[in-house]
Amino acid sequence: MITLDEITKSYATADIETRALDAVSLEVAEGEFVAVMGPSGCGKSTLLNVLGLLDRPSGGSYRLAGIEMTGLSPARLARLRGEHIAFVFQNFNLIDDLTVAENVEVSLLYRHGEAATKDRVAEVLDQVGLGHRAHHRPQQLSGGQQQRVAIARALAGKPSLILADEPTGNLDSANGEQVIELLQQVAAAGTTVIMVTHSHRDAAAAQRIVQMLDGRIVGETQL
Amino acid sequence: MSGAIGFWGKARHFATAYARNLQATRLLSAIAVAGLAVGLAGALMLALVARNALSFNGFVPDHERIYLGISILSGPGMVPEVDPTSPRRAAGLIRANLPDVEAVGRLSAAEVALRRKGEAIRTKIYWADPEIFNILRVPVVAGRPQEALNSPDGLVMTQSEAIRFFGRADPLGAVIEIDGAPMVLRAVIADLPTGMTDLDRGIFASGRSAKSDFGASDAPGGFSISARTYLRLRQGASPTAVERGLARLIEGLVPVDLHGQYAMRLVPIGALALHPGLHPGARARLEVGSLVAAFILFIAVTNYMNLSTALSARRWREIGVRAGCGATRGQIARQFLLEAVATILIALLLSAALIELALPSLNALFETQATFDYLAHPMLLLWLFAGGVALGLAAGAYPAFVLSGLSPAALLRDRGVRMMGRSLVADLLVAVQFAILIGLMIALAVVHQQRRFATTEALRLNIDQVLVVDAPCPASFRQEVAKLPGVLGTSCAGRGLLETNFSFVPSGAHQIPTDIVTILPSGFSLFGIAPIAGSISTLPADGEKSSRGFIVNETLVRRFGLGSPKAAVGKLLRLSSDSSDHGAPIVAVMPDFSFHSVEAAIKPTIYFDQPSSQGESGIVLIKLAGRDIPESLAAIDRIWRQTGQQQPIHRQFLSDRIEELYRNLERNSWIFALFSGVAALLSATGIAGMAIATAERRTKEIGIRKALGARTEQVLTLLLARMSRPVLWANLIAWPCAWWMMRNWLNGFAYRVPLHWWLFPAAALIALAITLCSAGLQAWNVARRRPIEALRYE
């Protein structure tokens, strides 16, 4: 599903160059649930940005579903992102002005593949247990519910890859568990999930843990 | 319910997102939309006024082929004098000799006594050739105007004049006396649209009447240019060729000493309103208006751009999410562009309502009849829509470009606000806005100062409480009025005192255009003027036999090379190069003064002491004490009737007459005042928007500063200083531009105020005050936040 080969990412200012990713190589299979761990500033989020096509690597090769991503135009990357990738963030990233259903709908607006349907929105909201909250605004929901809306939004487009950046970071343990369970179900259904986390308990729910330090992968644990 | 999210589904989604965003930011969105609406309304109204001016006389069929023959008098060292009239006899010559002219007809302006059923009033009319309505084919209400003036007693009126005199619109056959001669109303024409025609009166009496001046011949050696001559050229005829033929024709009419100095030119009637000689300042006013309209539109649009960019700062998460969900930069930019177009169209609707409300006032200010009749002109609606879309795309381009260019990776990690840092472009836009505001304020102050100067100091005489009665100095009336307790003095003068009436006076080998004015010696003391050399006491007292001594002004002494004013006294002055004119001595030199516009330099002037020169109608000057004015005026009216004056009294305060001269300036003053106000309002909203954006962006910084011990006042000063920076930059643009423009404007006046240096910092201070007031509240709210709130923010 994903093949990273010697991926580097550098940020340069006038005086210094910071290497956020340093020759990262990684393979992730379809339907695999991978947790990425490491201290703050080790490059986890940069890795997620590169995997999510939000950022371009400075060097190396990134193949997603057999397609080489480096060198593609921004428009093509955006299109691939819309069709194959979805995100779940620590801060939920819901649009305050839109209702729950409308927030989920956003992920269907930019798809070029199969025709998205309105009942898909209802379906995924039911899947995360929030069908009855479709017309509420995000501010009217608890943190756990907001994150479930974010997961519903991620699922709506039937992506092949979900990238989750500390999805339980803003949640209490009960809500956190619910979110991890949802991600496990998604992975079990065949969607690849890569999750960045600081929580060993959350990471334990994955099939593999990748350890990062100073922009490098320093260890992997198969669970 | 199932179904694809097709075009309409997406449209609904984006419309919802747009509407909810407007709702969430209703106050600032309202400010942005209202600012745009005001700016658009101002710009559109000025555009409508300009369109009106550019379609002058457009209601006359074939106006493209109709010309007015105007006169241009020029001479060495003189600004050319342009007059809309031409020699009376020119029309006959044209008719007989220029085959390219299809029709020619004249109008001659006159003020006559109109009497109906024993009641007489003085009113302004035109004596008109029968052909005139064959040339100016205006809409007809009743009768046949083309034939109405064939008989000497024929009369044509506009509808409102007919109603005014006869109580109905079509009283054909009704009789009214003009200067004692009965005239029969034979046709009624539609009212001439105010401001759209050069004709300023609605009564047209047959020029074949014995009372008309068409039949009068010029005095020997004289040269009268008193008729408005209209020509309709044949299809395809060249006006230049006709003008050349005209020059040959009128050569015989022009006195030899004016050859090379007088020219008759053709001006299309559509171009009369903006002719620089006939309407000095009209083109400039239109240009100023257009420039101000462009400025206002610029401020409104840049304001919107800044405000919408600031408001969009709250949408960083939405942008990030959309990008994360696969939206390309183009798709995000399109969304914001469409939102901008929608906002502009909303503002356009509001501006239409504002135009409906304000256009009548603006028409009154510009003396135009601009209309906003979009129902009758669907193309106007289409143009407005197209203009709105284009403007929306232009206004939305900047926020769309900025917002769509943000990195989604950073936006999705809550770094959106920090990323939407204050851009140089936004600062520059605010600086240009304020530069315009500062420029407009400087212009307003200069125009106001010049207007005050023109109506007070530049006159160099005291016109306070001086009443002018149109009459050739009836002795009994003057004596009785002088006895009234509220009257300080009386005098008489010719109308040349108030109206241009110049002759070419020989000075060596040259002919110098010189104003010839008749005024009794008492007139000078009435205005509080004393000679700077010589004496007027040597002249006979008022009422005695007039002398042949001349009183001249300083300019004449200079232009005629007579040395100092003192040296000029006693020198002989001749009015014509005729050898029979032995001239008369200069008895006194007066300081320069003028009742004409300060746009023109004071000409050399000769003052006769006769109450009225030959053929010149006169005025009685009455200086009132300034108390019990209504009673004094009533007593003057009573004396007028009691002393057996045949005509109704026509009186006016001299100050009102002077004010009329400066209506251009007055209007310019108003334009600048009005639109400076609008610009100030818009700029204030722009700064308020900037304040909000700055506060949002610097919340964390403020938290850190406060946590480290900064006091609220220090933070407030920091914020206000940051917001004031582009306003201070604005002066770098505004000062040189305003200095250059206003210096050029003032140079158009022969007598002008200096361009005071302090106006510039004063305007800058006002702009700064507007900034501090509009940004202060927001800055204060942010500055007094507890540090913990600010630090928790991120």
Mean pLDDT of chain A: 90
Q: Figure out the total of helices of chain B.
A: 25
- Which regions of chain B are unreliable across 5 or more consecutive residues at pLDDT < 50? 611-615
Number of distinct helices of chain A: 7
Give the percentage of residues in beta strands of chain B.
Answer: 15-25%
Give the CA-CA distance, first to last residue of chain B: 41 Å
Helical content of chain A stands at: 25-40%
Structural class of chain A: alpha/beta
The largest inter-chain interface, given as chain pair and residues per side, is: A-B, 40 and 35 residues
Q: Tell me the radius of gyration of chain B.
A: 34 Å
**Whole-Å distance between the termini of chain A?**
19 Å
Instruction: Tell me the total number of β-strands of chain B.
Output: 23
Q: What proportion of the residues of chain B is helical, as a percent range?
A: 40-55%
Unreliable runs of chain A: none
Biggest sheet strand order of chain A reads 6-7-8-3-9-10
Order of helices and strands of chain A: EEEHEEHEHHHEHEHEE
Shape of chain B: globular
Largest sheet of chain A: 6 strands, mixed
Number of strands of chain A: 10
In what range is the share of β-strand residues of chain A? 25-35%
Structure description:
The complex is a heterodimer of chains A (223) and B (794). Chain A is an alpha/beta fold. Chain A is built from 7 helices and 10 strands. Chain A has a 6-stranded mixed β-sheet with strand order 6-7-8-3-9-10, sandwiched between helices. A 4-stranded antiparallel β-sheet of chain A has the order 2-1-4-5, covered by helices on one side. The longest helix of chain A is centred in the C-terminal third of the chain and has 16 residues, at 173-188. The two termini of chain A are 19 Å apart. In chain A, 51% of the residues are buried. The model of chain A has no long low-confidence stretch (mean pLDDT 90). Chain B has 794 residues and is α+β, with helices and mostly antiparallel strands. In chain B, 48% of the residues lie in helices and 17% in strands. Chain B contains 25 helices and 23 strands. In chain B, helix 2 (26-54) packs across helix 10 and helix 23 runs antiparallel to helix 24 (759-783). Residues 611-615 of chain B have low confidence and may be disordered. The A-B interface holds A 45, 49, 52, 54-55, 74-75, 78-83, 86-87, 89, 91, 93-98, 102-103, 105-111, 115-119, 153, 157, 165 and B 1-6, 9-10, 13, 16-17, 20-21, 23-24, 317-318, 320-331, 407-409, 412-414.
